[in-house]
Design a protein that fits this description.
about 425 residues, 5 strands, two-stranded antiparallel sheet
């Protein structure tokens, strides 16, 4: 596939580092790609920082240089020397390499969770010996642009599972069209979705595909890799909205009684999912030190790397304590499996293992059961007990109330009662 000329040029600023062909000739093309990747990263985090900075400046009681004001909103703290406004002062200077290298180190130092997110080629390249300027006028193939996109999404906080799903979905589109990403049209996307539909994929799955494509093309359009966004002419796919049911009180008691009394781990997992509403990925990531047994609280790192405090019920606390008394290992994980890692230590309990346990438990009672249903049950229960939706949202770790509403199956009797209450 021939590389594109004008349509794939980066477009942060029209006059940003024009004409530095010497860079391409002085290093391997793969290294050059990662140098530019560092620049993209710096521009991205600086933009987010500046938006937050402007918001803080409008609050007379807030300090725009207070690091916590940024971290509390999941925005990376950018030291002054690493901000884009400072970097562009060196666009025509042979010191630009040093400036970028230092900026990357400062940002990683201030934000430890970014460590190893980016390729180290930027740091390894010897800018000083080359004495060159850097230019962003270069071209990308499909695998290059996909890598850039995934890095951006990783920095945004997308989970590794989501990144893998995004990657595989976009690769399928590339293979179907056999085109350079800048040549893909809205017709190509429609034809691909239509073929998937004919192969039996549901509208819900097709809509998920469309959303991934929209995210991809929106991102590379915003970053100036392409001029026209093909997804602007691809409409959302209508999906039949099915009301997903939560567990009934009877089903909960049946499953609770069906778990053997001596299976403290399984009983602890059951009660923790039920009383806290956490995601299964959050549950398997828990460490013993995350638990405050006195307050019956624990902290989790949810989607987007947001940390939040969650709460457990009395049963969950009791069974976790009983389970831990049966352990004689040094693993930090709250829940472990019988398998050993390469060092001979117990392995952390896997998501798939918990899914199998919950499904097997439900099947034995003719109940449709899976871990996510506990989360929906939790949300519905608390809302039906008149907990404010904003508090339920916070407990679930949702960024939007709209997302919380998707989980909830409101008791229609309660709706009728409140309707009569407020209309009479």
């Amino acid at each position: 596939m021939a590389k594109k000329e004008s349509s794939t040029m980066l477009g942060y600023e029209d006059k940003l580092w024009l004409a530095a062909d010497k860079l391409r000739g002085s290093m391997d093309s793969s290294e050059y790609k990662h140098v530019a990747l560092g620049l993209i990263f710096l521009k991205y985090v600086s933009d987010a920082f500046e938006v937050r900075q402007q918001q803080i400046a409008q609050d007379e009681y807030a300090d725009p240089e207070d690091k916590d004001e940024y971290l509390s909103e999941n925005v990376f703290w950018i030291p002054k020397e690493a901000r884009w406004s400072e970097i562009i002062k060196y666009t025509n200077s042979p010191e630009i390499g040093q400036v970028i290298d230092k900026a990357m180190e400062l940002i990683e130092k201030e934000n430890p969770r970014l460590k190893n997110v980016l390729n180290n080629s930027l740091k390894e390249f010897d800018f000083l010996s080359q004495n060159i300027n850097i230019n962003l006028d270069f071209n990308y193939e499909n695998d290059d642009i996909l890598e850039e996109f995934l890095v951006i999404k990783r920095v945004e906080g997308l989970s590794e599972n989501s990144l893998k799903r995004y990657k595989n979905t976009i690769i399928r589109l590339f293979k179907y069209t056999k085109k350079h990403y800048s040549e893909i049209t809205h017709e190509d996307v429609r034809l691909f979705l239509n073929e998937l539909s004919q192969n039996g994929l549901s509208n819900i799955t097709l809509e998920n595909y469309r959303r991934i494509f929209t995210s991809f093309f929106n991102t590379i359009t915003d970053y100036g890799f392409i001029i026209r966004n093909p997804m602007n002419r691809v409409s959302p796919i209508k999906c039949e909205k099915k009301i997903k049911k939560e567990f009934t009180n009877e089903e909960i008691e049946l499953m609770r009684e069906a778990i053997p009394k001596n299976k403290y781990r399984e009983r602890a997992i059951f009660e923790l999912l039920l009383s806290s509403g956490i995601r299964i990925s959050e549950l398997v990531s828990l460490n013993i030190e995350d638990i405050n047994f006195e307050k019956k609280t624990f902290k989790v790192i949810g989607k987007g790397s947001h940390e939040r405090i969650c709460y457990m019920g009395d049963r969950a606390k009791l069974f976790i304590e009983q389970y831990l008394k049966t352990r004689n290992d040094n693993s930090p994980a709250l829940f472990i499996s019988q398998k050993k890692d390469k060092d001979g230590n117990p392995s952390r309990f896997a998501i798939s293992s918990i899914q199998k346990i919950i499904k097997k438990l439900g099947d034995s009672l003719n109940i449709k059961a899976h871990p996510h249903k506990f989360r929906r049950t939790f949300a519905t229960k608390f809302l039906n007990k008149n907990m404010p939706i904003e508090q339920v949202q916070k407990l679930l770790g949702h960024e939007s109330v709209d997302t919380t509403m998707i989980y909830i199956n409101v008791n229609q009797d309660m709706v009728k009662f409140n309707h009569e209450k407020y209309t009479n």
